[in-house]
Amino acid sequence: MSKYIKYIIISLLLGGWFSALSQNKLIKIADENVKDLQFQQAIENYSKALKKMKDKTLKKTRVENKLADCYRLTNNPKEAVRYYKLISETKFADKTPIIYFNYADVLKQLGQGELAKKYYQKYLTKFPDDILAKNGLTSCEEYLNSTKQSPYIVANQNGLNSIYDDYGAIYSSKKHDQIVLSSNRKGSKGKEKDNWTKGWFSDFYISNYSNGWETPHNADDTEVLNTDANEGASFFDNRFRTMYFTRCEKGENKKVYCQVFQTERSGKRWSRPRLVLSDSSSNVGQPWVSNNELVIYFASDKNGGFGGKDIWMASRKRKSHEFTDFHNLGETVNTPGDEMFPYLLNDTTLYFSSNGHPGYGGLDIFYANYKDSLWTDVKNSLSPINSNADDFAIIFKNEEEGLFSSNRNNGIGGDDIYSFKRKKIKFSVSGTVKDERTLLSLENVNVSLTDNKGKIKITKTNKSGFYKFDSSCFIENNNYSILFSKENYFSYRDSIDTYNFTSNNDFEIDVILDPIPKDPIVLPNILYDLNKWDLKPQYQDSLKLLIGVLNDNPNLVIELRSHTDSRANQEYNDNLSQKRAQTVVDFLVHNGIEPQRLVAKGYGERVPRVIAKDTYISGFFIKKGTALTEKFIKSFTSNDMKKKLFELNRRTEFMVIAKDFKSTHKVAATKNSVVNIINDSLGVVVPYNIDSNGKMAINCYLNDFKINGIIEPDINVSSINGDKVLELMRQGALSKTNIKGDISKVLQNDMFINGTPLEIEKIRIGDIVLNNIKLIVSNEISQSFIFGKDILEKAGSYEINKENSIIIFK
């Protein structure tokens, strides 16, 4: 081997050796930077060392992790994600699971919720009880993709902000037209850079409001207030004369500690600041002081807390004393993360910033309520107050508006000051009211809206069942009761609250009212002695109950059906049944019932009683549905049994045949009122007349409601006019159950489409009752009802007597 080649090999080996020495030196220096919290310097040294590492080794992975941590701690999530991604699936990460947590945190800050969830879950498999990881997972699930927002409009205050850090504004005048803020913009007294952020130490600046915030100017040129130290996070007393503020300066050990000072303002001059809150081994700052100035709330990394920085409180006996007797606000407010920038609104609501509670990423602004000597019910202030970045240092001008600080995207500099103002939220409520039985719209429903102070506003539904209360009827943060009522319907009540809305809201409350069912109409049976038609006393009492029913329901028309047993010839029995019917009619008319409400018929022996339910008579079991024909009765050998069965056939029955009677005049009671007694021994006779179109028109009853019909023997399918269907539904003759098929498809805007199938429980033509009749709805016919071939054939054989204008059904 030549000397030249040996020289090259030795040079390469020595170069690699010196390179390794250089890497190790840079890493060692960077590690010292981190110990001294000089993260920006550490980033430079780790980056230089990383460039010298060509192969993927454990050593390189360690440096990538340290570099990712430094970027995370200097609030540069984009660069942090870049390096965490390189190591997130390595064995090193599995052995160092905090990498999963840190990676998830910066992913959350960038809004990458689904990927962040993955690494929170991986971390939780190692440490299932970790509170911060659980809260981080909750943040991804409940906040990153949430549409919930706070009811505020947020705007960057361009006049206040620079390309540097501007933060921690506090109102410094009674009119709230002046603020003091902290900034490290050019011109600040501090000549050093913060090792943590590489930003210049900050000073206090003042801005006045005149059609907008003016460009801030230095709050003090005497170096009494603004010094070479880092000043920020201030608070004014309620007279706006005393300012409490945070100052961070180097101690003897060259470490920077933060303390709280107090100064008095007189014109443009400040008294020499006096130390009022400090701790020998920790940072304290970001004060909020009570009105009597004897209690202070502040942030500190003092030992005995729950995490990094916590919210604490302290007290003093006199204003001239320092604050002592520290108390941590407890684990409801504080977490293993950081809680900072306390601010009390009305002494009952604590606002603070935290990266430990569930939120959007970075620091979010939260609030807690003071109840029973405890701070409880911590809630996130939501977007747009909060963002994926750091949001902190909120203050209120009043309960509706104020200022806060944020380093969110699209700002002017690093930290910027933003305003927030509560939006005026408008509300309305509207809807439709329908009948549960028919699903038709209900007109003239009373709708009343009552607020929690008892103030009532009233409206009514229109023909379409529509109602509305507009925004003039509502205010925010109120409870309302809305009541729907109409005669003969059960009332319905609902509630509305206008709490926690972040945008306008139009409530929709559609209501279906249930009709109040009428009491069932029970009509008595009247029994007679053999060959007698006079009323027994006990049945006169029964008829008095019937009179009460008729008086309570003046729209009813009833039919009296009198019967005999079969132990005489047909002619005798027909006359006897007519006399029995006449006796009952006379009794009812004598007691004030209008004759027009009574239809009496004598059936003789032709319609035997049918037993309505299983029963025992003289010890014999009679099954439901049994007809008491002469043949059946004579099948018994017991004379007593025969006598009782014959007696059951001698009766007058009552049936409601119409529910739409309208009285035209009051009829005086008389014993001689006569009601036409109909004998149907020759068949059922139905009269008709010829209408203007030459059609045979008859009257009939559909579910006991009168309807005019036209006889059309040549039409196969009977039909009914759509408007007539709606009318009958509103009258109570029909309901949604009569509609066959999907009613939501066939009933549109309170109109039925052509061809809608119906099934009617009962149609009565003369004395013929037909059950379960199928019809179709037609909006094209002018008549109310067309009797086609299908109904006529179901009624039986018939003949048309044109000479007497009658139809006789056999």
- Class from secondary-structure proportions: alpha+beta
Low-confidence stretches: 5-18, 668-672
CATH architecture of the largest domain: 6 Propeller
Provide the gyration radius in Å: 47 Å
Provide the CATH top-level class of the largest domain.
Answer: Mainly Beta
How many domains would you count in the coordinates?
5
Kindly estimate the percentage of residues that lie in beta strands according to DSSP: 25-35%
End-to-end distance: 134 Å
Give the overall shape.
elongated
Query: What is the count of helical runs?
Result: 15
Roughly how much helix do the residues carry, as a percent range? 10-25%
What does this molecule look like?
This protein has 810 residues and is an alpha+beta fold. The protein has 5 domains: 3-142, Serine Threonine Protein Phosphatase 5, Tetratricopeptide repeat, CATH 1.25.40; 152-422, 6 Propeller (Neuraminidase), CATH 2.120.10; 427-513, Immunoglobulins (Immunoglobulin-like), CATH 2.60.40.10; 526-679, 60s Ribosomal Protein L30, Chain: A (2-Layer Sandwich); 684-809, Beta Barrel (Cathepsin D, subunit A, domain 1). Helix content is 23%, strand content 32%. α1 runs antiparallel to α2 (39-51) and α4 (77-87) runs antiparallel to α6 (98-109). The longest helix has 33 residues, at 3-35. The chain is elongated, with a radius of gyration of 47 Å. The relative contact order is 0.05. Residues 5-18 and 668-672 have low confidence and may be disordered.
